[in-house]
Amino acid sequence: MLKCIPVAPKFLTTNQIHRHLLSIDPDVSLRTVQRDLIELSDIMGLTFGESPEGYKWSFAFDSPNQFIPAISREEALSLKLVKEHLKLYLPSHVYNRLTALFKKSDDVLKKSSETKDWLNLVQPMPQALSFKPTNVKQEFIDSIYQGLLTKSWLKIQYDTKNKTYKIKPLGVIIRDSKLVLVCQYDGFDNMRNLLVHRLKSVEILSQTYQSDFSLKAYIANQAAGVLLKQEKIELTFEAKGYVKNLLNDSELNESQEVSLLSDGWVSVKVSVPHTVELENWILSQLHEIRLLGPDFIKQRVLDKAKQGLELNNI
Questions:
Q1: Domain residues for 116?
Q2: Sheet arrangement for strand 56-59
Q3: Nearest CA-CA partner of 63 in 83, 38, 44
Q4: What is the pLDDT of residues 279-293, one digit of tens each?
Q5: pLDDT higher than threshold 80 for residue 99
Q6: What count of Cα atoms within 13 Å lies in the side-chain half-sphere of residue 232?
Q7: Running DSSP on this structure, what letter comes out for residue 172?
């Protein structure tokens, strides 16, 4: 009976619940259902109100008892971690619907002597400096997600520009704690990436659009990584220290080949997209890399390094 009762503001009347139960047990009476619902209302956090069809029943919006059966300790641990990372990446009305589930997971963890202190023992830590946008507006995120779900055009103001633009929202990418809106400006065929925290206004328009855009394919083509060259490049370099250990333990992609050299260095060959991020990573690790090719990549990276030295009077 409890499994069929929805969460407020949705509801079922006593008669509707009774009809549901008759499909399971033809002998159950309406009087029994009425009595059991009254007895369970305090225990299970049920709410009820009057209607022309009789009492209407719901679980309270934040009642942890709306999730039946109980969740396990392992599930509760997972939900605790998920809670820390979801708020920015979901529409607020979706995130708020999880309130009861998060409350139930907290109750499960507190009741277990083995898991109640778990979050004091295990904490995630970013690999490097983590810069988070400070002015993300939840109402903008909600409007973007609504536009995506309903395929509605948006009217936006972006960055320092006072002009408004009409765009098709086509997808959201989560990168380095930032939300990136993939969109198409009205009158243009190319895709653009907008940082959500730089939006100055977002308005959902009544006009809708049709699109077969694939965000997965877009990301696979590295369009989200500030692509500098359409074709992949054959990157070759020698590495020591941290970079050597990093590439021995992990890989940039499946094409990576690492071979040991006699002097403690390793030789690395890998086919990768030519992106700004790639150049910046090589530049950041230049003290442990001997860059061999392609020549134009080597020249671009060395030019950036020289500019940095000159800027700092070195």
A1: 73-121
A2: 12-13, 56-59, 46-49
A3: 44
A4: 888 999 999 999 998
A5: no
A6: 12
A7: E
